[in-house]
Amino acid sequence: MSSSLEKIFIGRLIGLDVFDPLGDRVGRLRDFVVLRRAPGGKRGGQVKRPIVVGMVVEVPGKRRVFVPMTRVTSMDSKRIVCTGLVNLRRFQQRGQETLVIGEMFDQHVALLDGSGTATIVDVAMERARSGDWQLTELFVRRASTTGGLMRRRPGETLVVDWEEARDLASVGPQAATQWVQAHEEDQPADMAEELHELSDKRKMEIAGELQDELLADVLQELPEEDQVYILTNLDVERAADVLEEMEPDDAADLLNELPDTQAEDLLQLMQPEEAEDVRRLLEYDEGTAGSMMTPVPIILSPETSVADALAAIRQEEVSPAVAAAVFVCRPPLETPTGRYLGMVHMQQLLRVPPPEPLGTMLDTSIEPVRDMAPISDVAKELATYDLTIIPVVNENRRLVGAVTIDDVLDDLLPDDWRTWDDGTPVRKVGRRYE
């Protein structure tokens, strides 16, 4: 393999495009996989440095796959070229493997010259005479001042050989600053996919670094077992704060997986208004429209102007699916509302003068679904009328919420759909896939 760089710092490569020899883009580099050999072991008088065995590449479809280093033909600061067929099976980390970005960055080490401790900021790799790529140097930031002949400044950065530092990860929790910075432009679903592949310990370290709102968004994209593990291992007050940031239907689904006493404790710690929305969803049987609806769609009175309706849609916290329509009701406008009158689609709002009242343009042709209706009925209505959102009413025709197309898809897909491999044969049995 050729390389224009004798020494490569891995952090500078992350995000680079990976190409085949013909120049077609394969995907984007997300991480490197190394094998860490026994600490202190030697062979021929040399310390056993970790071997870089491959790359984690994100291919189209947001799938992360493994590409062996033996397939890499060239690598520089602008792009990576690999040869041969790429196995599109989803990457799964094995017991002896370590992810450089996911697990080594932010790791604590002791500097063996006695000058204190430091945190790994970046890692360099070089190609050995054997042809293997090995980790050879650490770019670190000092964590403390020390004695000795010279005082060292905290925050000072330096490069040390791999052999000049000792792993201190077992001493305490590892920071996740570098991991979060490396993924700050990722969508929550992409962050969740990578988080799912990490160890439980690393999951909690990263969860501790994320802001409540972002952690809530990421949790909603994780498989149930990961959601439960992270939530139940957070400080109970922070767990309640994160639940408040989640969509009420997602929070209700997560609380349904917890013991009743634990779920009630968290509800008691939540803000009363947020907890009330979640409690109402918990009252419905699983598989009904009421159990999966959002209880806070955009609800306005018939006197509201088009201008005010568009302002409500433009709010940052409103998701695209919810913003597809506003629902018009008689007061009170908090769910359960007064009598439901009809809906106004966003496209229609864009076609009429701003002062026009909503009551003059109601779409009453779309019949709302009942809160006790099965999901199959909701899916049929959404498909029949090409809708992304549909109103949900109770027996008194009061609006109690709305179901969006993404709610239905999440329910109809199997629990493990996020971890499917392309081409995996599946068989549908009832509402589940096997």
UniProtKB/TrEMBL annotation:
GO terms for molecular function: magnesium ion transmembrane transporter activity. Residues 293-360, 361-419 form the CBS domain. It comes from the Bacteria. GO terms for cellular component: membrane. PROSITE patterns: CBS. InterPro entries: CBS_dom, CBS_dom_sf, Mg_transptr_MgtE_intracell_dom, MgtE_N_sf, MgtE_transporter, SH3_actinomycetes. The keyword Hydrolase does not apply. The keyword GTP-binding does not apply. Gene3D superfamilies: CBS-domain (3.10.580.10), MgtE N-terminal domain-like (1.25.60.10). Keywords: CBS domain. This is Magnesium transporter. It comes from Kocuria subflava.
